[in-house]
Design a protein that fits this description.
Distance between the termini: 88 Å
Order of helices and strands: HEEEHEEEEHHEHEHHHEHHEE
Shape: elongated
Low-confidence stretches: none
Strand content: 15-25%
Mean pLDDT: 85
Number of helices: 10
Length: 303
């Protein structure tokens, strides 16, 4: 019995020793991942590379993909195509941001961040998923632990668009294996430090914890009609009804032509930030609609 226990102890010791060496090597490698000057000792410790046209720097959709990918044509991105590569993560995030009254603009794959680190010739490269221009209260809600989808559909608080905050978001699916890789975690930490140094906020959004199917359905019921044609006459008609005070959605729809066309125009005006609908519940005839205040960056009608 004593011999068996001794043999087992020796076997475990032989197993733990190489694992400890591997852990030490990983810790040593991560310790070297510290921002430094680029090769040559001059210049910045990191740089942001954007596209010439101001759009996404990386087009995800190509013939080599073996998973669902696609484009989301966003009104808040100047009617440009925003690429997505996760129908459970990135796509619903784009829908929620498009519907939110506190998100003014969005851009998928906004830039490439290169971070120069010690003892590594090639820089660490990071492509963020989404860049948003948001009201401060929206960021405050996210910092307080409110799920992204809930914060996105919360009522606008009439904050001036001049006080917008730039927010970089990394969207994580629960099945993403990289989340448990020390090197990848370290890269995100370094990216957060770089963004903070230039006044940009950085958050990691977990799909299971921050994106709720019910909220996505509400946002989709509005965003699906974002490309409906609206004229200046429609804008004036909505303003005439809402100028005294907020009204039920049915009254605004009646002023916009009633029926399906009126509902489509109301939803399109909301996405353009020309009216503000209550999205905390399913949109119905009794949903409140009002004119937003301080919306200097509203999206005008197109002919």
């Amino acid at each position: 019995m004593t011999t068996a226990i001794a043999t087992q102890t020796t076997w475990y010791a032989g197993l733990i020793k190489p694992l400890a060496k591997i852990a030490a090597k990983v810790a040593k490698a991560l310790a070297k991942l510290k921002p430094t000057r680029n090769p040559g000792g001059k210049g910045p410790i990191a740089r942001l590379l954007t596209s010439r046209d101001g759009g996404p720097v990386r087009r995800i959709v190509n013939g080599r993909q073996t998973k669902y990918t696609g484009f989301f044509i966003s009104v808040k991105a100047g009617f440009a195509q925003m690429p997505w590569e996760s129908r459970r993560g990135e796509k619903p995030m784009l829908v929620l941001a498009e519907a939110s009254g506190r998100v003014v603009s969005l851009l998928a794959q906004p830039h490439r961040l290169e971070i120069f680190v010690k003892e590594q010739r090639a820089p660490l490269t990071y492509f963020p998923d989404l860049q948003l221009k948001v009201h401060p209260s929206f960021l405050a809600d996210l910092r307080a632990g409110i799920p992204f989808s809930t914060a996105a559909l919360a009522p606008s608080q009439d904050e001036p668009d001049e006080r917008l905050v730039t927010l970089i978001i990394e969207i994580k699916d629960d099945r993403d294996r990289r989340q448990n890789q020390p090197r990848y975690k370290k890269k995100l930490e370094l990216a957060k430090e770089v963004y903070r140094s230039i006044g940009i906020e950085f958050l990691v959004i977990q799909r299971a914890e921050d994106i709720f199917a019910g909220d996505v359905r509400i946002a989709s019921s509005v965003v699906s009609w974002r490309h409906t044609a609206v004229s200046q006459m429609d804008v004036w008609a909505a303003e005439k009804v809402l100028r005294p005070s907020e009204k039920a959605a049915a009254e605004v729809v009646a002023a916009l032509g009633d029926g399906p066309v009126g509902w489509a125009k109301l939803r399109a005006l909301h996405v353009r930030r020309l009216v503000d609908m209550d999205l905390t519940d399913v949109v119905s005839s009794t949903s409140s609609v009002r004119l937003p205040v301080h919306n200097s960056r509203k999206i005008g009608v197109r002919y």
